[in-house]
Write the structure tokens for this entry.
Amino acid sequence: MTDKIPVKHIEPGTQKLEVYGGDSVQSGVTKSVALYAARNKIYVKKIKGFFQRIRRLSLWMLMILYFSICWISVNGQQLVHFDLPNRKFHLYGITFWPQDFVLLALALIICAFGLFFITTLFGRVWCGYTCPQTAWTFIFMWIEEKVEGSRNQRMKLDKSGNSFDKIRKKTTKHALWILVAFGTGLTFVGYFYPIRELVPDLLAFENVGGWTYFWIGFFTVATYLNAGWVREQVCLYMCPYARFQSVMFDSDTLIVSYDKDRGDPRGSRKRQVDHKEQGLGDCVDCGMCVQVCPTGIDIRDGLQYECIGCALCIDACDSVMEKMHYDPGLISYTTEMRLRGKISHILRSKSIAYAVVLVLMIGAFSAMIWTRVPLQIDVIKDRGGLYQMTGMGQIENSYELKIMNMSDQDHVFNVSVSGLDGLSITTPTQVAVSSGEIYSLPTSVEVDPRKMETSNYTIEFKVEAEDDSTLVNVSESRFLGQPE
Ligand code: SF4
Ligand code: SF4
């Protein structure tokens, strides 16, 4: 990948960086490189095409999902709700507690590996089609175009002096951007504070604390700035994924590329004339691929880290090729191998390794979710003494049972013990535990010493909900005593 470093003169006394060699500076030559490049506003031209239909569909779908999921409730429970005050997460009908941290960690690792796997195969498809930065920038650009018009109209408007029409358009655009940004901030907070309560509470100025206002404000401002003003700068300078993903690329990874052999030498020509006879390639040098690029690069300069793989340039160039009656695909999704005239392989050691790890982890995660019981028991043996003799001559051991009800309902639980003939619990064996509560139950267990053959037994405590036989869990402990 070519790292394009903006080279410019630095005034004495300003910060400077000495760069020796590299991709975009001549090897062995010392250059002063500015650490900050001023942003040149990019006016993206609207383009239609096959990939843009897919991209539009995917980005709109993601936006609709983001704004709607928090409004969906099942059995009175918001489908996705991160209930921080009560330290539980409701995800698609399952309630996760801090005790489920392993599941959360595994889910995050699966997502990371999924991203590595997809990147190895399809390059920056995440950036181009699904990244939130891309999605919100897309919506903001869509609003911009609806209000201010096409690329040329927007450029003309920005160059023109202040007028009523300009102020009206700019005010409308920013008001709509702020509205979308506010909706984004409100929705984001609505995943933490039930949105069906949040909206009425906000309207009534009731129950809403200062932090809620702060986070809504923070995400409103962040969205407005990121999608309205900073845009591609986030991808170029702030996104860590954009930087480290190149290590996942290999010569079989899908990239957007210009076919230099076919396109060069570039130049304008008349449609009727055979350009081959003029010594020209298929590129008519119209600049359409640059005008549609949201990061403002020229893909004909080669693969660059700024390229987010959105395929806008492919659609733009294909439309030009169609007009010229040339074959499509001068810019296309391809691989380095194909560009070298070799066969590209989807199945290769790196992608197979990622796939195997991914399948194993998804299998383990599914099994853990499938077998997960929202009831946890911890048995702590009393450390005060190994055992006691009761007045009736029985051997008694004491424990503390911690019963955690991780289900969404309150339940009454029955406690029983097994592992040794004649073993019985002498303390209460029925306990009501509310949803989310951890109940500590002191428990004493006794047995006739004549039933004991050794001094040490493994016993098992079983806790079962009275109204739900599937809500049951067991935990082991030791029973100690002196056989008679
Ligand atoms: S070069 Fe093409 S694929 Fe890459 S960001 Fe620009 S328009 Fe998108
Ligand atoms: S859109 Fe196609 S024909 Fe036009 S400049 Fe780009 S590569 Fe050349």
Summary: Residues 177 and 339 are 42 Å apart (CA to CA). The two ends are 80 Å apart (CA to CA). The pocket of iron/sulfur cluster (ligand 2) is lined by residues 258, 263, 283-289, 300, 316-317, 320, 330-331 (CB under 6 Å).
